[in-house]
Amino acid sequence: MSSNRTVNLNPGDELIGVAKVINQEAIERFEYVGQDAAGQDGNGPPPVNIHTDDARAREMGLTRPVASGQMSFAFLHELLARRFGADFRQGGDLSVTFLKPVYGGDRVTAWGVVEEVDTHDGRAVIQLRCWLENQDGVQTCAGRAEVTVPSPWTQARGEEARPVT
Predict the structure, then answer these.
(1) How wide is the angle at C-alpha 121 spanned by C-alphas 118 and 124, nearest 5°?
(2) Long-range contacts (CB closer than 8 Å, 24 or more residues apart) made by 156-159
(3) Domain assignment of residue 6, yes or no
(4) Residue 113, strand partner residues
(5) Residue pLDDT tens, the chain, 165 long
(6) How far does Cα 74 stand from its chain's mean position?
């Protein structure tokens, strides 16, 4: 069970980055999923907004459509879920600030570094700094995450989380 796992992380340890190439098709697909999640059937007209429409983006002072901030957030979430599995997905915390737009054609990489590891009630509480940067090394969003290993929610449900080493 996950309660038998140990955490072998130290301040300064880096998470393995997750890289993505963003294209306009992926941006639009992400918007359709959001439309569907909002209770629309996804078969209606495509969303017209700064993410999908050149004219709308320009009206808002952008040079072209931009990826949704939620898309950037999802990439950081993936970074943490790949590293910490169910312990992050079921009780982790992630907070970010969006700094620069992400455009179709950008290559972005999600990064994370351990800042602190404490123990609370026999569980490792890991504080991380995380960010997304584009192909030019420019941070497009940055924030902080916290994950508890084993997560009380994972352990309470009797679920097996991925080993954390």
Answers:
(1) 35
(2) 157/90, 158/1, 159/2, 159/86, 159/90
(3) yes
(4) 14, 129
(5) 333 455 789 999 999 999 999 999 888 888 877 655 555 555 666 678 899 899 999 999 999 999 999 999 999 999 999 999 999 998 899 999 999 999 999 999 999 999 999 999 889 999 999 999 999 999 999 999 999 998 887 665 555 544 444
(6) 4
Residues facing residue 18 across a β-bridge: 110
- Residue 90 located in a structural domain: yes
DSSP string, 7-63: ----TTPBPPPEEEE--HHHHHHHHHHHHHHTT--S-SSPP-STTT-HHHHHHTT-S
Residue 56 domain-assigned (yes or no): no
Q: What is the domain-level CATH number for residue 126?
A: 3.10.129.10
Is residue 88 a contact partner of residue 6, using CB atoms and an 8 Å limit?
Answer: no
Q: Which helix (H) or strand (E) holds 144?
A: strand 139-149
pTM for this predicted structure: 0.82
Instruction: Domain count for the chain, please give it.
Output: 1
Give yes or no for a contact between 67 and 103, defined as CB atoms under 8 angstroms apart.
yes
